[in-house]
């Protein structure tokens, strides 16, 4: 009886996932390869004319190849931001876990505040303007790092809690300083949770729309999500081109999540169990 109930629950969950995720994705793909006239119907009908190459070419060439520039900007933003998040979060988590005290308690409160308190757009713009980093890629990178650091610190700290302190003591007896201890002994042990942080942060930053819109305006600085906003106003009657743009933007993070889903779950679960 339990087996039947479990099978029924799994079947219901699978059906719900299919309706919520696969049906909209299939609709998006079908609309993206239709001609302009058929795409206006916005239905699940099979394309009478497959315009895969034509729609793809039109979207790429639109607005002087803005989508290609956006992909380059998003790639730079994602790679640099994720690298900084991994290094800074791992180092901060190691210190917070190994050196508990009043300062550590205050730091933990600030980390949790970063998850709870929503970002303030206007004060952040004022700060970036004062630093001369507003409307620049380095300024947006700092914003993404600041907003993504708290979540990464919590993951790293849960994992570091399972690493015995005897390793630290043995390394220090062998003459390792603080930096050498971390990068030569501790950081290599954080590989599972590091992969999790890289993948989750990369998908979040690549898909970010609000921060690039406010802190890095302009077509030359546009990221892929901002181009979708611009395409919506430009092709509001050409649904085939709009959905083709959505497909081109959606597929990279989707593939990343599909192929590395097990590593994401494994890293988060290991940190939760060991912490």
TrEMBL record:
Acetylation is among the record's keywords: no
Principal location: membrane
GO BP, one annotated term: transmembrane transport
UniProt-listed Gene3D superfamilies: MetI-like (1.10.3720.10)
Keywords: Cell membrane, Membrane, Transmembrane, Transmembrane helix, Transport
Signal peptide: none
Record-annotated membrane-spanning stretches: 12-33, 76-96, 108-128, 140-160, 181-206, 239-260
KW Transit peptide (keyword) present: no
Compartment annotation: Cell membrane
GO cellular component: plasma membrane
Membrane topology: Multi-pass membrane protein
Pfam families: BPD_transp_1 (PF00528)
Family: Belongs to the binding-protein-dependent transport system permease family.
Protein name: Raffinose/stachyose/melibiose transport system permease protein
């Amino acid at each position: 009886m339990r087996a039947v109930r479990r099978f029924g629950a799994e079947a219901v969950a699978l059906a719900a996932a299919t309706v919520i995720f696969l049906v909209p994705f299939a609709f998006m793909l079908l609309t993206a390869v239709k001609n302009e006239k058929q795409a206006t119907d916005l239905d699940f009908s099979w394309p009478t004319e497959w315009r895969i190459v034509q729609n793809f070419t039109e979207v790429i060439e639109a607005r002087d190849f803005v989508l290609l520039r956006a992909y380059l900007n998003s790639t730079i933003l994602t790679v640099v931001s994720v690298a900084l998040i991994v290094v800074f979060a791992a180092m901060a988590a190691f210190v917070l876990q190994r050196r508990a005290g009043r300062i550590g308690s205050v730091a933990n409160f600030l980390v949790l505040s970063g998850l709870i308190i929503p970002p303030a757009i206007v004060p952040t713009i004022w700060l970036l303007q004062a630093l001369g980093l507003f409307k620049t890629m380095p300024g947006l990178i700092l914003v993404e790092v600041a907003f993504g650091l708290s979540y990464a610190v919590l993951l790293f700290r849960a994992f570091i809690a399972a690493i015995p302190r005897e390793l630290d003591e043995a390394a220090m007896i062998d003459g390792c300083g603080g930096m050498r201890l971390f990068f030569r002994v501790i950081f290599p042990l954080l590989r599972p949770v590091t992969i999790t942080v890289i993948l989750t942060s990369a998908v979040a930053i690549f898909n970010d729309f609000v921060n690039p819109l406010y802190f890095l305006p302009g077509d030359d600085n546009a990221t892929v999500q901002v181009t979708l906003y611009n395409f919506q106003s430009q092709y509001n009657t050409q649904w085939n081109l709009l959905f083709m743009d959505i497909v081109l933007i959606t597929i990279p993070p989707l593939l990343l999540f599909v192929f590395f889903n097990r590593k994401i779950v494994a890293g988060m679960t290991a940190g939760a169990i060991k912490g």
